[in-house]
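PROTOCOL LOG
Step 1. Enter all chains and additional molecules of the complex.
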Amino acid sequence: MTGRKKVLPNLYIALIMLFLYAPMLVMIVLSFNSSVSTSVMSGFSLKWYAEVFRDRTTLHALYNTLVLAVFSSLIATVIGTVAAVGLYGMKKKWLRSMVLTVTNIPMMNPEIVMGISLMLLFVFVGNLVGKTDVLGFPTMLIAHITFNLPYVILSVLPKLRKIDPHLAEAAQDLGCTPVSAFFKVVLPNISSGIITGLMMAFTLSLDDFVISYFVSGPQFQTLPIVIFSMTKKHVKPDMYALSTLIFVSVLLLLVIMNISQDRAEKKRRA
Amino acid sequence: MKKTSLRAKILNAPYIVWAILFILAPMFMVVFYALTDRSGSFTLQNITALAVYKETFGRSIGYAAVATAVCLLIAYPLAYIMARSNASKQRTLMLLIMLPMWMNFLIRTYSWISILANTGIINSLLRALGLGPVQLINTPGAVILGMVYNYLPYMILPIYSIMCKLDYSLVEAAQDLGCSSRSVLRRVIFPLSLPGVVSGITMVFVPSVSTFYISQKLGGGKFLLVGDSIEMQFQTSYNYNLGASLSLALMVMILVCMVVMNRFADEDEGAIIL
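Step 2. Run joint prediction.
Step 3. Record the structure below.
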């Protein structure tokens, strides 16, 4: 009876995993295709991988994506952490709830609306100063910081709520200046929230397509935008090769993160 | 006391300025563009032009509603099974569900073409079995499949996290008091998991109703959704005013759907308590 009871749930899980991973599997297999088809496998070849590394647009877009993700996540983390500390210390309840409501807008609004609203603002300001090609790295950076900020604030705020408020006061009574009390007492206690926020911001920025699509210009293109223009035309397996490479790097990153987390947990227990 | 509030003000200033400039001002821009014409003078023309898009809005809501319902039907049992599994299995399944979300959504959607196309994998298998090719790609079903595939994790995760916190002694108590397993599900588990269900529905419905890539690729451009119409106004027709008006309508529509759903959820809860 117990045997039969377990088979059905496991079969169900297996079916859903098949559904989630079927396209990925297809992509990985076809990236080794020796012909140009993205549906029929005719033989094994690595030529599409060579093609990816020969394609300067792709490599340049990869570089742009990383630069944008690093800068936007770092800036968002600094502004967001400062904002979380400020919001936590805010005395006016109504103002705080208002700011938090506004903070939720980028998370609740459809991405396409966020994208076009920022684009309209940039184009409008551009028209005011008489520039027609405002869209580029600065607008991308602003957009990415904007959609990253809520995630940073919402991962730091709960950590602040957990700290004993008397801790910072005690540090000040013992001769710390408010600033050094913050760095010595508060910051170590919220660091895990800051790191979570930073990592979320970084990955969101790496992966974002919809918002970037509307606020990017021809001079500065990220990988998702290049992939989008590739899928507009007829796709060759080189895109599948590129995606397989991304998939493998994400997988490695996750495995390394999990292992280091496990190790940290074991250390704490020991 | 005064000193701390001054410090809080200084700390808050950069973010508040940022939020006003890049969250509120863009929202205002959408309203402004929707209510003006190319030269910048007031007009309602963009709002009245929305009548043409009645069918598009209807289709978007319909497809998104079906996709959300399918996600709920698939995710609910899975979340329950996961929450009742042992810790290491839970962690593995969690990782497996999150992993596809880290992949570019354009590529994941595009790969379905290889599976569903007329010369694709499913039809090749069918042909090998001697069955005729079935039209799978460029159908409403393919568009809905794309939505379910992309947003299913957003339904699984909130329901699963609620199910984990669920107090199973309540289930045992209900069983001890003579509840059948079906009524345990209906009268104990489901009402308790309702907050997860509601946030799951929101997290699937909003991106589904506003998507613009899925329908272009898997629907072959035949079943345009609101997102596609907006994208077209901004990237090919360059009619920003009409595009802004469509976006405004989309925002209002989502807001109305959310309010209706929250009311529905509240009433449901009330009925169960009674």
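Step 4. Note key features.
Chain A touches chain B through 74 residues (CB under 8 Å).
Chain A has a mean pLDDT of 89.
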